[in-house]
Structures are given as structure tokens and as C-alpha cells.
Write a structure and sequence with these properties.
150 residues
């Protein structure tokens, strides 16, 4: 499958600035149930003002969110889940091994481990300059997109 650009990602994911944390999908292998996304980390990210002044690093929780968003694109492509929103059920085995800083480019690889009914489990790894920055196992479900009534 060809690359998925930011305009296509915005049609798949409900997230918007400042919470859209994937810039491009580089690979989407539906047969192998694997996807690779890209996030360019810039000094203009709003969280860098307070995390941390003098030595800005990307919060780990936002790295996990980036993994989830890439996984959400894979779910959408695998299950034709257009118009559905993915929700976390669990985050397991999260590990943070390297600081992610302005100027870094995160390569986010997500592989489907198991799918049953509306529940999917993924293994995700973020690398920066071929060095593992973080990893986690994520489980989510999806439902129809909220209509804003409540």
C-alpha cells in the first residue's frame, strides 16, 4: 500500500492540532498486519514550554498516544473502520529508553498481535535514529464516532 499523507490521516483519525501526533504513514502492510508511521518532533510543540524548560523532552504519555494513533490507522485500514473512534482498554509493558527531543524523527512501528470482535492488541515500538526510544503493548476497542451530543 502506498504512503498515507497527512490529509488522508486526517480523514481517518479524529485528532487535530495539537493532538495529532503522526505526520505520515510510510508503510501499511495489511497482509502482515503491520504499519509504520512518522512523527517529526519540532521545538514548536506546545508541551515543550513546560516539559522541561532548558531541556525539552517529549512526554512518554504522548509517545504512547502517537503509537495508538498509528495503530488506529492500521485498525481503520484492516477493518474498514471509517467513522469509528478507537479507545484505550489497556497499556502494558510500556518502556522508555531514550529521551525524544526537538529535531528528532520518530519512526513508529505497530504490529497487530491479536484481534477478537471489536478488541485489538498491538505491539508498538518507537525508534529515533535506529535506537529504540519507547515501546508498549496497547489494547483498544472502537465504537461509532461521538456525535458531540454529550
Amino acid at each position: 500500500m502506498p504512503e498515507i499523507d497527512i490529509d488522508q490521516i486526517k480523514k481517518i483519525l479524529p485528532h487535530r492540532y495539537p493532538f495529532l501526533l503522526v505526520d505520515r504513514i510510510l508503510e501499511c502492510d495489511l497482509e502482515g498486519q503491520r504499519i509504520v508511521g512518522l512523527k517529526n518532533v519540532t521545538v514548536n510543540e506546545p508541551y515543550f514550554n513546560g516539559h522541561f524548560p532548558g531541556y525539552p523532552i517529549m512526554p512518554g504519555v504522548l509517545q504512547v498516544e502517537a503509537m495508538a494513533q498509528v495503530g488506529g490507522v492500521l485498525m481503520n485500514q484492516l477493518y474498514n473502520a471509517q467513522g469509528r473512534v478507537a479507545y484505550f482498554l489497556s497499556i502494558d509493558r510500556a518502556r522508555f529508553r531514550r529521551a525524544v527531543r526537538p529535531g528528532d524523527q520518530m519512526r513508529i512501528e505497530v504490529v497487530l498481535i491479536k484481534a477478537r470482535l471489536k478488541v485489538c492488541r498491538f505491539k508498538a515500538v518507537i525508534t529515533v535514529a535506529d535506537e529504540e526510544a519507547s515501546s508498549a503493548e496497547l489494547m483498544f476497542t472502537y465504537r461509532e464516532e461521538a456525535n458531540g451530543d454529550g
